Amino acid sequence: AVFISSILRVAGFKIGLYTSPHLHDFRERIKVNGRSINKKDLVSLTRHLKGVIDRYINKNKDLPTFFEVYTILAFCYFRLKRIDLMVIEAGLGGRLDATNVIKPLVCVITPISYEHMDKLGRTLSKISQEKAGIIKRGTIVISATQPKTVLDVIKETARKKRARLYIVGKDILFETNKINAEYQLFTVQGIFARYCRLKTFLLGKHQLINAASGIGTVEALRFYNININSSAIKKGINKARWAGRMEKVSERPLIILDGAQNKASALALKSAIQTIFNYKRLILVLGIFRDKDIKGICSELERISDRIILTQTAHPRAASVAYLKRFISNGKVVHTRENLRDAIELALRKAKNEDLILVTGSLFTVGEARSIIKASKDV
After folding, report:
1. Domains parsed from the chain with CATH numbers
2. How far is CA 329 from CA 209, 299, 306, 326, in A?
3. Dihedral of alpha carbons 24, 213, 142, 220, sign
4. DSSP, residue by residue, 47-74
5. Least C-beta-crowded within 10 Å: which of 52, 88, 174, 209?
6. pTM for the whole thing?
7. Minimal CA–CA distance to 4: which of 141, 92, 106, 99?
8. Are strands 356-360 and 254-258 parallel, antiparallel or unpaired?
9. Contact at 8 Å (CB) between 366 and 258?
């Protein structure tokens, strides 16, 4: 979503971007041309919607969720601001997601893994069926690289819906030209053209997959007579920023923040850390929600960690440190701290200049860590 919106903004379009979750302020979820919805418009629209929602509750006797209400608010705000195009990120699924009321020009399916299994299903096939529920009849579908089980579901759904499907790794190709701790250079062979030596400051192979998907998406708009030139694509990729994703917030010691919150994203993070950064020891500060795949996350990240500090955020879904400790292998050096501030302070005391501190486990952990680190720098 970030790559797509960045390219379209550079191309001159007024873009509404809806994403979740947020890092610091829930207004971050609704943006127009990179700016979060302002407080005045948020209050005004909320007051307007309250009457509509009250009437709905009286008639239907059920309460809409926060995400459903905020999705309606986003659509209203984008209409108010007369945006040209919307980039809408689904919440936890596809088929039953509140965002799925629209008929998009292009449907984008990011890498699918075991996530939200209590709601989407316990197998990749069932999860994929839910995710593929965003595919509408006659639309264009861009899919990131996927396991065969997932691709089989996406292909069959696209066939039934008579949707045109393009897959990263098959129809859209990318190759890495250069990787360092600051940026990546890469080349993409898209649907219509080849884009050489693109530069992104978002790190990790998974971000190259996201970039290739984004390029395929904006290229697909050509089928609707919306033509995005190669200069806009190159500049848009370069300008894309995404806080809390392999974000470097300190140099000595190196501190990296990343919102990995399932086994697949932890694996991608582990691979990126090992490939990109040079360090002596890795100190892991880990805070995870209790309803996530704690075992899967820990199994990936403990392998690259020399010292582990378990903690919890102020979020009500945060797992306790005692519960997290059950999932760490014997023999690992483990500390526990009941709050994130103490955990970060301990990590800084234990770290030498040549070490790397990795703070991860959820975007809420990262958001709280960013605030703590920023406040310490401002003192």
Report:
1. 2-239 (3.40.1190.10), 247-378 (3.90.190.20)
2. 32, 8, 12, 8
3. positive
4. HHHHHHHHHHHHHH--PPPHHHHHHHHH
5. 52
6. 0.94
7. 106
8. parallel
9. yes
